[in-house]
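Cross-posting from the chemistry board since nobody answered there.

I work mostly on the small-molecule side, so proteins are not my area. We synthesized S-adenosylmethionine and want a rough idea of how it might sit in this target. Sequence and SMILES are below. Is it possible to get a predicted 3D structure of the two together?
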Amino acid sequence: MLEEAIESLQCKPGGIYVDGTVGLGGHAHTILQKILPEGLLIGIDRDKESLDKANERLKPFAHSIRLVHDNYKNLPLILNNLDVGPVDGILVDLGVSSYQLLSSERGFSIHSDVNLDMRMDRSQRWTAADIVNNTPESELANLIYRYGEEKLSRRIAAAIVRERSKGPIARCSQLSEIISRTIKGRGRQTIHPATRTFQALRIAVNEELEGLEKFLIEATGFLKPGGRIVTIAFHSLEDRIIKKTLRKLAGQCVCEAPPELCRCPRQAVGRLTHTRPITPKREELAVNPRARSARLRALEKL
Ligand SMILES: C[S@@+](CC[C@H](N)C(=O)[O-])C[C@H]1O[C@@H](n2cnc3c(N)ncnc32)[C@H](O)[C@@H]1O
């Protein structure tokens, strides 16, 4: 969704932009082409290895970038430390990158015989294996249900607890085999039986949903009038939070109460640039099927 994201950001020459999920620097590179020679790009990522690669790729623009190893949810602190005032645009392209997913040693892959890790920030202590081996059964079932939207979560949690009583579950392939054995043939399966559980663990390890609403509100506060915040979400849980928060910031009702009972503040600080989310074009899906669930939303500060 590179083209759509850049178009939605409406990058201006000389502007200040934040790429909160700079990854390997793909979007950042295109933003820089639009804002140079005077512009500034602040690139944030919680994955040090990705950030080092972005640094290498963006070396020709070194004087126009500041790369920060941090969580984009710390944006107010990051901008204050850099002594940067209001900005022209903020982009967050959420989730994991293909680089992380395909690096087998990072432990995101269902199929690999590697440590069950899944940390985006490898300086963090808590891994997916810690959750799988230490979380009480009912809590584990709730986590798989909530973050994976997996209807068979109780059955899966029970199987995990049974297996871990024999010894720790340490490898990705070990966990995916346990899940496959437990739920194969149950319900309609169009994806690998372990997909939803792996998604749930990834969201939990990286606390992907925590603080997202707060971030969107704070980030909008850092925009100049006319500046835009652009988000790309890859799963419905994240997209639901974004949709609701951006609507709230646009002064719309987000409650399910009948109009006479609605207590939504309806104070607009921005306007939605599109009424519906932007989804990837057919041509993009042909080369990158992983983009099928991507939803782009944007808000312009009033
Ligand atoms: C989909 S990729 C972004 C790819 C990037 N747009 C590019 O062009 O290369 C998502 C990136 O966001 C990072 N990330 C996810 N959550 C983050 C967070 N809370 N704070 C900072 N970085 C985060 C991941 O480490 C990953 O590198």
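Reply from a structural biologist on the board:
Welcome over. Reading the output above for you: Residues 236-249 form the longest helix (14 residues). Residues 103-205 form a domain with the DNA polymerase; domain 1 fold (CATH 1.10.150.170). Happy to explain the token format if needed.
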